[in-house]
């Protein structure tokens, strides 16, 4: 990840010396000779660290005022003061005003490198902590052992280390954002930011400001857009299918030219950002209707990844329920409970159109509703929220009355076939577990399946 360091000093010798030492250590540096040039450089791109001379001769702002201006705009950027011999008091007052540390001239190369690395490390940790806070506990791990989940994990591992743009396709609540975060965590940008932007939640008139930020004269507060915020990391564009046409055009331009303009600005800004996008919509039909640009689709979906709906990985449901119960228990203090096999069968057979998010919400509801009861009684099927029962698939035999038109022997066969197919599907194709649940010997189940032509 780029560790972009800005060095601000009025003495060219010192600037070059500091830049040379840091570049030898593999850092990227930029230099500024006065306060306005420094603010302009920061406005061009927010650096990861600033070295700032306390005495800036011939500058509009002196070092301490510039420190305040930087901290007001970007409190997250560490600033190390460069102080002249005998300026320690000023250096200490700089620390009170938010400087990270100071080095005293003349300084040794080792000390400079050490301070830079410590400052970069601290700000990286701060970013990680705030990222973790934002993500909260339920974003931490992509759970699931079913075949589709294992395949998904393999795809993530393959695609993460590349710099390719990925588009994640899947229904709402299926875990697209979690997949994007897993790609970030397994990529070389893991220490860089992960910035999520939901195109559906932002009004079209705010969209450009949110993506590209605003321009303002140096020293005046401005909005940093998502593209700049994600420099060195990943920008996750959620619900791209909901992006207005005008924004689609602008994003396409950023992707083709690798630069963008801030709102109200004229200069083109360059950033190093990998884009991961997602949609629950059918972009192909949007393309044929003309509401989504085909060229943008091809640029965003260099690698398309499909996240299967929960109904296609029912085998994961018990494990997800157990994990959610544990998480919710830790968050709320409600004791976790066992679930009876019948209740689990209902939970596993339901259709879950809202996918994992809906499952999690129902687990939470279930825990709250059953907290008053006897602690050792497992949750039974009749304690499940109505929503769960309403999602049970209506089998054709129930809905079309076909069964009633058949003699008992044929009707039984139709029923057995549908029942066993649903159970096998529920246990992810695992015959032993299906046999155990339906109460048959494994070999007897095999024979039965064969005789039914399954
Ligand atoms: N494999 C998983 N393991 C554990 N939790 C998951 C998994 N997939 C999704 N979740 C949880 O389900 C919820 C929804 O996931 P997420 O927000 O990633 O879905 P999404 O597809 O991005 O939704 P939307 O389309 O609405 O943006 C979150 O609480 C997330 O933590």
Automatic annotation (TrEMBL):
Which parts of the sequence carry 4-aspartylphosphate?
Answer: 53
Task: Quote the Pfam families the UniProt record gives.
Answer: AAA_lid_14 (PF25601), HTH_8 (PF02954), Response_reg (PF00072), Sigma54_activat (PF00158)
Gene source species: Aureimonas glaciei
Provide any one GO MF term from the record.
sequence-specific DNA binding
Q: Does the keyword Transcription apply?
A: yes
Gene name? ntrX
Write the protein's name: Sigma-54-dependent Fis family transcriptional regulator
Cite the Sigma-54 factor interaction domain residue spans from the record. 142-368
Please give the Gene3D superfamilies that the UniProt record associates with this protein. 1.10.8.60, 3.40.50.2300, Homeodomain-like, P-loop containing nucleotide triphosphate hydrolases
Metal-binding keyword on record: no
- What is one GO biological process annotated to this record? phosphorelay signal transduction system
What the entry lists under SUPFAM superfamilies is as follows:
CheY-like (SSF52172), Homeodomain-like (SSF46689), P-loop containing nucleoside triphosphate hydrolases (SSF52540)
